[in-house]
Structure of homocysteine desulfhydrase:
Amino acid sequence: MDDDEWICGRLGEDEPWVLGAVNPPVFENSLFTFATAQELGEAVRNEDERYVYWRGTNPTVDLAQRKLAALERGERAKCFGSGMGAISATISSLVSAGDHVLVLGAVYGPTTQFLRYLEKFGVTHTHVGDLAGGDSAITADTRLLYFESPSYMAYAVVDIAEVTGWARERGLVTVMDNTWSTPIFQKPLTMGVDLVVHSLSKYIGGHSDLVGGVVVGPSRLIRPLALTEYQLYGAAMSPHDAAKVIKGLRTLPVRMAAHQERGLAVADFLADHPAVRAVNHPGLPSHPGHATAKRQMSGFSSLFSIELATESREEVAIFLDKLRHFRIGVSWGGFESLVNAPALSTEESVRATMGIPVGLVRLSVGLEPADTLIKDLGLALEGVGRLA
């Protein structure tokens, strides 16, 4: 059993508090009591690590955090009630009024919306396409560089070590969203990233039955965030959702291998289809970032996008409606295969900022047989381009 498989399946689960239970106990209580007033006072002062009140942490949540920190090779992790809870608290912990944030490449739409929200508090941001653009956009007030790799919707790959080296030379903190790869396939902290965030609702949970988020990194950055933004924003993870994270982690290595296999099979089929202009999957040798991805990743998930040979929103909608095995919906990372089209569901200004074309369709390949999904896509693609 390699390190990641042991972390996912066994880390922390043989300790005395588990009492030999094959599934770690779920601590449902909202508070903990103490023998003396002094003990309570000490616990409150260290509420990021001590069990005081549900809004701080509890043993079930703490076990999930320990596993996630170990998987990412980080010192500490803090779980939140949603991915955006983790992202919002993390960004807020690193900036103050007058500060500037650089955003490299395309990122999750609500992250951009949150950065726009921060403008009312005097925090500005600039989107740049590459580090050359970063050199032009950086100011004396820039404090943070935020990015994803592979990037949102376009699935472009950046050289993480190059980006973090560039940021470090300029005194910037780096935050990276690693949801696409999971810690099984990519470990950004080992390449110089300061803080990593995830939506736990996706592959890590793996069953489309929880909403959660996490931030992982050094204690010097996680502790103040846990004591301040985590507590004040109130986006606490419930122990029941933490238990689902723990169960999802047990099968994560096996599921990611299966997602990779099926995703690449579907992407290979689409790459040769005349109704598809482009397939944005870093696992394909034709992808411009494939060599970089192979160097810094150990595998590929099954979330990618294609560009249909059309400029018609109507035709994009028809394609989605013709699918029978791919369900139409947001999110991804579960057993079920999903499809979504940003032109039909994303705020126009956000789509424009990210440079997402009308014909772009996102596919989340689930764990159904690849040949079933390929047949489904082939039938739905018949006639695409007639309205172009």
Observations:
- The mean pLDDT is 94.
- The first helix runs from residue 3 to 9.
